[in-house]
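Researcher: Predict the fold of Glia maturation factor beta.
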Amino acid sequence: MENARDQNATNSTQSRVNTGLCCAMWVNESVSDVQVDEELESVELEELQDILPSHQPRFIIYSYKMEHNDGRTSFPMCFIFYTPRDAHMELQVMYAGTQRALAAAVGAPRLLEVREIDELTSDWLNEKLNR
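Model: Structure tokens for Glia maturation factor beta follow.
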């Protein structure tokens, strides 16, 4: 499903301990492959609202610095499936069928889904992770 370059990109995202690391991926229908769209460092989730396409699904691997109430700091890696409500149905089905296998392939312990680009915020992510 993933080519070697894209596997290296996801491994690179996993191995760096930093704030706001992001790897956005898309499904290339013509070759039935998941490919890297964007690799970003020091990016807030809110900034992705301006970067990601508003009508096309994306898989997002995101890691950031999370401060806990007890003083601990962690760097969770999240796999976010962004699928806009107005995306073509064929794309939604293709991405939905790929999400779990891709999340397992990159070793993402958390699988989250967002339907509207403006929901993609730090508050949204913190709420999901603190459940």
